[in-house]
Amino acid sequence: MTTEQTIQDVAMIARNGIDRVIELERENKRLAEALANANEQAERFEREWYLRGDEIERLQEVSDEMFAAMTAALLLAPHSSGAYGVLNEAIKNIQPKWIRHGEVTS
Q: What keywords are annotated for this sequence in UniProt (predicted)?
């Protein structure tokens, strides 16, 4: 009976070991899929981050061009024209904040 009990104990230990190996393989597969998903999301975020940076640079260039065009128009507009005040106010509104910061409003 001891031999039979020992065989049953060994069989149970082997079954438990096999079940644990199967469980660990499933967990390993799940973690590998989660890692692949996380890597894909990180790559997508990085691409979007760089695209946003490119778009910000493009918009800054457009803003600089617009500012330059409006400044040129302001310089050419007679002070007595209605356009002068409108252009002057528009330029003040789009100036970089570090330029406007020093202004004293009355």
A: Coiled coil
Could you tell me if 35 and 42 are in contact, meaning their C-beta atoms sit under 8 angstroms apart? no
Banded model confidence at residue 9, pLDDT cuts 50, 70, 90: very high
Q: Domain for residue 105, yes or no?
A: no
Sorted by sequence, the CB contacts under 8 Å of residue 78 that are 6+ apart come out as: 84
pLDDT in tens, 15-63: 999 999 999 999 999 999 999 999 999 999 999 999 999 999 998 888 8
Q: Identify whether 106 is part of a domain.
A: no
Question: Other C-beta atoms within 10 Å of 4: how many?
Answer: 8
What domain count does the chain have?
1
Taking only Cα atoms into account, the Rg of the chain, rounded to an integer number of angstroms, comes to 35
On whether residue 67 sits in a domain, the answer given is yes
